Model the fold of this input.
Amino acid sequence: MRPVDKVALFFSFLASVCVFMAIYGYVHGAAVAIVVATTLQPFLYLFLCLLHRTERIMSRAEDLSELEFFMSMVAAKLRLGLSIEAAFHEACLEYRGRLKELLENVDRKLMEGLPLSLALSGLSRSLRSREARRLLMLAPRLTEYSSKKAGVNLYRLVTMLRRNRKLKDRLWKALRAEDLKVKLLSIIYAAVLASLAHLARLLGELVGFSRPLDMLFTFLPLAFMSIVTPFYATLIVQGEKPLLRSITSLSVFLAFYVLLYAIV
Amino acid sequence: MLKTFSSKVYAKFTSSWLHLLKSTVPALSEWGIREEEVYRALSPLIKFSLLFTLLPLMVLWPFDAILGLTLSLALFYPSIKLPSLYVVNKILRPMLIAERYSPFIINELIIAFTASGSLHRAVAFVAEGDYPHISQCFKEILRRTEEGIDLERLLLQYAKNAPPTIGEFLLHFIKAPVEHRFSASELQHKVWEVYLEDIKRLRLNILVLFSMGFLLPVPIIAALLIRGTSYLVPLIVPLHTLLLSLTVKTSLRGRVIPLG
Done:
């Protein structure tokens, strides 16, 4: 069973509240508004769940880059003519990275005489990155070559990974640049929405519709907008913690509204 | 008797309609897509297409037959064009994505073969890569090899229906895996090109989303407030949420990230 998409649930709730307000504002019937809004909410939730099912196009596969670094050390040892077990052991001694403990386990198993494929299967299960696990699929076959050839092949594999990593870094930087724009735009956007909410209040007072409920019916949707837009904007630039951005944007909205309320 | 006759007429009518729909789909044989596949994808859409065309005529017939007929005629073209667009998108899009990312796939096949010395491992490596269309097809090929069918034969069969670049590569690769004509630098260059194009596209998508997300709602809300229809302002929230999530979904769909 799929876990509950909390964001979809929250956003569908906000949307239903807005639907309730729109219907209540138009027909002034609370019962009709509640029925329509509560009926709509599950559909909105399901629809949003479906749309939220998007994989991250960029993910920093730290396991993979660590593994790549370790593999390059093994490749260098193999090219010197060491056996795969000896190369692995030597590389393990020199390696100081995050995967040290896991790799030492593999080394211990190799020393006990376990075949490389079996020794690596435990490591494969412990790694979080799917890409890293995929890379380990190829390693066991290296034992079928002479040490030097295995070293050359492994070196080629590592070179490909490095080249690809450069490409990914470029995309990553491009996305980070856009992410900065999102941060800035989210703040400006919240301020603009707060200004609009304040303008609505002033217009309401001007034409004599200044009941608290009327004010709430424009204030709340604008506050909700300041939550929703930064969330999706952060998602598209693959930014971190989109909900936190939404909360920041909402805080700016509230702060700016209070400020305007105090001034004008 | 009458029932048999009417079912025959209905069958003939839907079959003609299906042929009409098929005639609007461009030729996809160069992509290895067979006519049967197109027919198979089109057949569930016949009812929708027919209903879309005939509904105005049926509903308006008692009131205003001319209007019903006019509307039905006006809807005739979209009702046959929309299913054909849907089918092209459904069948061809994964192939186009696979073709676009073919340098990535070829690169991985070569490297995986060089590292493992096994065609089976190389195919399994790409199958695990989540490449649109290709990974699924490779998984199916690997499944069939477990039934005892020769991998090379299956790959040769697949090469005929594969996206052009991959198909051409596979034909050479199966015959002489070491003597393929793709150099590492050439492939890397192609991968760079695809990637740079991806960055451009991503930036454009982000620009569209920014304008939709940050700019569009403000004037609309302002207009609603000024017009005195502030009760409509709340409706913007669900519409905006759905629109944004749809945009994010479509703009991130089908992207491939190379191993590294």
Chain A has ten helices and no strands. The two ends of chain A are 53 Å apart (CA to CA).
